[in-house]
Amino acid sequence: MDEKDYLNQMIEAGGKDAELTPKQAKILEAAIEIFAERGYASTSTSEIAKKAGVAEGTIFRHYKTKKELLITIVKPVITKFAVPFFATHFVNQVFNEKTADYEELLRKIIRNRFEFAQKNVPLIKILLQEMAFHTEIQQSYQDVFKKEVFPRFDETIKHFQARGQLVNYPSEAIIRFTITTILGFLITRFIVMPKADWNDEAEINRTIHFLMNGLSKGNEERL
Amino acid sequence: MDEKDYLNQMIEAGGKDAELTPKQAKILEAAIEIFAERGYASTSTSEIAKKAGVAEGTIFRHYKTKKELLITIVKPVITKFAVPFFATHFVNQVFNEKTADYEELLRKIIRNRFEFAQKNVPLIKILLQEMAFHTEIQQSYQDVFKKEVFPRFDETIKHFQARGQLVNYPSEAIIRFTITTILGFLITRFIVMPKADWNDEAEINRTIHFLMNGLSKGNEERL
DNA sequence: AATAATAGTGAGTACTCACTCACCATTAAA
DNA sequence: TTTAATGGTGAGTGAGTACTCACTATTATT
């Protein structure tokens, strides 16, 4: 319903002062909705035009190809979803505050990403589906993950390991468990079983709790 | 390379003594490979025919529609992947052996599903991709999960909770964490980063270890 | 007021798609 | 040997497909 969220992302990421005309916005809205529902490959440009209340030619005035339309939609999602996973803001906070612990960090990340996911279900669906088939999307994802997310995450985990708060797994493993658990929760919550009646507060707390038990120093058994 | 695994599944599940002719087998092999690579919607029947070394008409001699071909391929995967997740054999073992604990069960399940995933990467890719768009697949999955997997899993978890081995989360949450962690590992291992150099033994052990720490009674903090 | 740039149009184009069908080949039953 | 059933063929079909282009409408610049 609240499509503005999508479009603001486009504008910001689309380079400087890119202002969308009403019809351009309609095209993006329509494309997002149908791509999420039926998938990119089985969505026709005529269908998008029809839903957007626009002539088919108008789509190609703004996007050279159907694929360019997809990329325009998907690329900003990668940045917006992945980067705040470990934004500078958080990391700085961790290293400055002496009281900060991994649990606190987890709580902030999960809350943050929960709200993002809630507002952008269709976009996340498209990203998950189309990542498998388009090398441009894979590339974009790898760039963001390798350059933005992984280094900061790695640093943070080693910080907490040095303080004896986290188990001595390789930091890649801790990153994997953390991301896997959070994504697993969000995907179950918003994509696999969105209609179940969730107690979100309780579920978020349990997820943090589970992660902390799994990753805390002191709970280790052997190797 | 070892395509026989796929085809045996088809035969067994395809009803009684369904014997595939060489050309039929070639069609399935080709379809599985291309579906996994490019996705169902962007795979043409002419492409499948060409790769299988068969006339296009031959496909439609055996499958009324392109979609029927997809369903024939995907349906057995759901059963084969989901059911042994909690096969009777395992569950019986758990209730009979007094020494059995959740860790032992986890170890069996993970080993088992790891080998299955290893042998059936393309089929799992197709299932993950197409589940989102085809209600027949969703239905099939829900049937299997609700009737076969969930009840046994639920029972087992309550059994271990009663014995004080598992944390007192709702059993749905324990199921979710367990499946999420295992699937997260398998998907990372075989689909997202299949080319990284994995130490599979160590990674399997760590995954079990992480899950046990996260779910064991005694590690609880509050709530 | 004249010019130019941008947004929007929709009929048209070349092509691909899933699917059909009349026909041949091989084996099995009568 | 005839009949029937099944497997296999590939040219043909109509319904789309992404994309183009000559054109109009609107706004901004000179």
TrEMBL record, chains A, B:
The keyword Transport does not apply. The chain crosses the membrane at residues 173-192. Residues 44-63 bind DNA. Residues 21-81 form the HTH tetR-type domain. It comes from the Bacteria. Keywords: DNA-binding, Membrane, Repressor, Transmembrane, Transmembrane helix. The keyword Membrane applies. This is TetR family transcriptional regulator. It comes from Thalassobacillus devorans.
